[in-house]
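Consider the tokenized backbone below.
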């Protein structure tokens, strides 16, 4: 035998020399759940190790993440039912705890990269990402609300707006609104290819944001389809997105690869709640090692072409990494 591929695997050092992909804390965005109040830190029952924080405990959490090298955060609010209505009015109330929280985070830690979520579902009494009329999600009127929400978040100081709603035309609509109001430096990370997925289950528990009727299939994509992702990406590029995101990540590595090969913009992937929880649940049963599974998962997402990974594993990754 002339060729023995095993020679390149013979020691740790050689393996490290030929390693093509490695994940760094710089690649990660840590999603955090914010609730109203003080001194609260409540574990999400379907996401072991992940908490809903009030702003004071969230600031402490961010500080400890910063020490571990995690400096990008995506904050999602969990609203009580009584603050929800059909048009998500609370989302742009300047006194609402989410906007005040975002402002406080940037004041306390101006160096962090802070991302916010734009969609109606956490504030909607229908639990949908857009306005509901006669059982349908109406697109164009929803854009007005999304842009008011985006302006309020930009005003609170966020670095990146994350429209996760999948309404048509929202990236361009939000971009125009931001620019007209002087927020030309606020970036947009578009949820470009967001599929209607079973893997969002634990997130909807965390936010109490499950749809009150039906599903999200008239706006989120059908997991049978890959080409539609290219249409969505074309539109987002035209409309001024700064990053393209694929969500979820693991069942969609082909989509990540196709966007990364076809578009020069940085590609992000959202390693979603269900993908986190299934690893943690198996680990709790002693069926696999969560740390090793996490490294393999994050590496595979990066190998497929994502530069940025939004992941609930971010802190655990940073902890393991800092001990190496
Ligand atoms: C809602 C939103 C969802 C997630 C992020 N933003 C859920 C949904 O579309 O129902 C899911 C994140 C996760 O599962 O980790 N706009």
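A designed sequence for it:
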């Amino acid at each position: 035998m002339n060729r023995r591929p095993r020679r390149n695997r013979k020691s740790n050092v050689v393996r490290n020399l030929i390693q093509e992909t490695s994940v760094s804390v710089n690649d990660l965005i840590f999603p955090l759940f914010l609730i109203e109040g003080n001194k609260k830190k409540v574990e999400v029952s379907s996401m072991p190790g992940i908490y809903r924080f009030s702003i004071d405990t969230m600031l402490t959490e961010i500080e400890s993440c910063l020490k571990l090298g995690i400096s990008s955060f995506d904050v999602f609010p969990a609203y009580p039912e009584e603050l929800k209505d059909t048009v998500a009015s609370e989302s742009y109330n300047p006194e609402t705890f989410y906007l005040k929280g975002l402002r406080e985070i940037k004041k306390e830690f101006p160096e962090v990269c802070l991302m916010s979520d734009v969609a109606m579902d956490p504030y909607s009494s229908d639990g949908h990402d857009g306005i509901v009329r006669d059982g349908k999600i109406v697109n164009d009127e929803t854009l007005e609300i999304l842009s008011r929400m985006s302006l309020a978040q930009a005003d609170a100081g966020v670095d990146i707006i994350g429209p996760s709603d999948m309404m048509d035309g929202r990236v361009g609509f939000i971009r125009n609104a931001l620019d007209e109001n002087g927020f030309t430096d606020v970036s947009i990370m578009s949820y470009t290819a967001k599929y209607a997925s079973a893997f969002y289950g634990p997130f909807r528990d965390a936010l109490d944001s499950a749809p009150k009727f039906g599903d999200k299939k008239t706006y989120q994509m059908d997991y049978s389809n890959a080409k539609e992702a290219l249409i969505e990406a074309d539109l987002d590029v035209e409309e001024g997105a700064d990053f393209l995101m694929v969500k979820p990540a693991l069942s969609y590595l082909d989509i990540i690869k196709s966007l990364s090969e076809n578009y020069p913009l940085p590609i992000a992937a959202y390693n979603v709640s269900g993908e986190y929880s299934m690893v943690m649940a198996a680990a709790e049963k002693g069926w696999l090692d969560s740390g090793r599974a996490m490294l393999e998962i994050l590496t595979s997402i990066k190998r497929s072409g994502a530069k940025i990974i939004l992941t609930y594993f971010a802190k655990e990754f940073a902890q393991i990494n800092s001990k190496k």
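The chain has one domain: 21-322.
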